[in-house]
Amino acid sequence: AQSMLLLADGLASGALIAQYEQLYRKNPELTSLESKKPENQSKNRYRDISPYDVTRVILMGSASGDYINANYVNMEIPGSGIINRYIATQGPLSSTVADFWQMVLEAGSTLVVMLTTLVERGRAKCHQYWPALNETLTLRNLTLTSTAENIEDTFIFREFILRDINTGEERDITHMQYCSWPDHGVPSDWRQFTTFTEKVRAARTGIVEPAVVHCSAGIGRTGVLVLMETALCLIEANQPVYPLDIVRSMRDQRAMMIQNASQYRFVCEAVHKAYSEGIAKPLPEFSR
Ligand code: PTR
Ligand code: PTR
After folding, report:
1. Mean pLDDT of successive 10-residue segments in the chain (288 residues)?
2. What is the ipTM score, two decimals?
3. Would you call 233 a catalytic residue per the annotation?
4. What residues contact 278, with CB distance under 8 A and at least 6 apart?
5. pTM for the full model?
6. Which residue's CA is the closest to the ligand 1 atom numbered 17?
7. Are 254 and 88 in contact (CB under 8 A)?
8. Which atom of ligand 1 is nearest to the CA of 3?
9. Most buried residue among 24, 146, 176, 220 by CB atoms closer than 10 A?
């Protein structure tokens, strides 16, 4: 298809990267004032990573205020009627674990995607915000019970039950962790990453509530996954894939999505390979 030829040309000529470097990292018209308030600063893992006010997730029922470092990111797939909804967020801190699960509860989410390990090169990247298998974690008005854990090469899939103590409401949560992807870097294998993304798509099929996606800062690796899933959905709906437009749309909802040019190149190459190898292909119902 036309857009795939453009993508291949752009990768070969370097134009794709040049255009990416021109793009703003933050939309200059959008503020992030809430994250700078004194009472909220300790809730940010990184001082330089702040959510826009306009798309931030506002907690309704948290005892520690309405702020969490998270944004709603909605990616529309034209022509298909699909809008993939995400909450892009940082890896929880020990002090924000209860807020994190409160957010999952309030958003109605059933899927949490984790793209970091807890520690990388000796540095803490994310607090372990879930209990060990068959154990229960109690957080203010919530409990979280871990009921299953399956390790598949570099992925770990877990099942949790999230329970609201006040209402008795229970919800099954699927947790999908990708384990071999250091921050600022790219996955070691495009095929494995594409497989992981396909599994995320399968897990969210038919679900309108947002998938909660996080890494450590919630921008770099989270951005790569959102771009990949969006591109696969566009191909399936027989729509052109213009990665730069997708990044712009993401960065209008959460600043700095996709950390650097090597991540952008990686995901563009993965999209192109998935298309040329027929892993991603237009569905018959969408071909014109
Ligand atoms: N349905 C036609 C086809 O698949 O060939 C027409 C079509 C052409 C559909 C291009 C989508 C297209 O988008 P792009 O080529 O930019 O991916
Ligand atoms: N100031 C931090 C740093 O550059 O180390 C912020 C940061 C951390 C930015 C991690 C991006 C990071 O990667 P990811 O969003 O993939 O966790």
Report:
1. 91 94 96 98 98 98 94 95 96 98 98 96 95 97 98 94 96 96 87 95 93 98 98 95 97 97 96 93 74
2. 0.80
3. no
4. none
5. 0.92
6. 240
7. yes
8. 16
9. 220
